[in-house]
Amino acid sequence: MGFIGCSMAENTAQGYQAVGGERMWPPYGTNGDVVQSWTSTSSASWRKFDQQAARYGKPTAVWVQICIFSFNGATYDEVKKLIANAREHAAPGATIYITGQPQYQSGWTCDLAGRGGPELTDELARRAAADRTLNVIYPGSFGPLGSGTTADSCHANGAGQQILGNQAAEFFGD
What we know:
Layout: E1 2-4, H1 7-18, H2 44-56, E2 61-66, H3 76-89, E3 95-100, H4 117-130, H5 158-172
Parallel strand pairs: 1-2, 2-3
GO molecular function: hydrolase activity, acting on ester bonds
Protein name: Sialate O-acetylesterase domain-containing protein
InterPro entries: SGNH_hydro_sf
């Protein structure tokens, strides 16, 4: 199973492997790869994805994580482009899962995504899943992270990765 996203997806992939998950690719250096990094099919982000596909085979399932920086956010049209691009880079007929980046405890702000940023990504994922023409699956939201589960204001520490990894195993299988 392939995935696209940013460092938050990397945290989830690390946690997934730590809890024994084998279906999902291991982390492959998507740190900083927010939505706009994935809107062009020839971007450096997609080149990294294609290297993984060459190594493991074109995935029959792809998890699309909507990940943002506060200064550029994301639009629904960009999210639709991510989904279309994931289909282009995956095996024919691949299942596409979509989520936002992890959610946080009430009152917690991920400085990179900004106030309300993680919630926006979750809303965009839910909207995409509700659009039957996109044929994507929203398995649920990741988290919440916060005090004791983050290494900084955004990224999961070991305990947070455990939470994310267990959720990924529940959402995608192990």
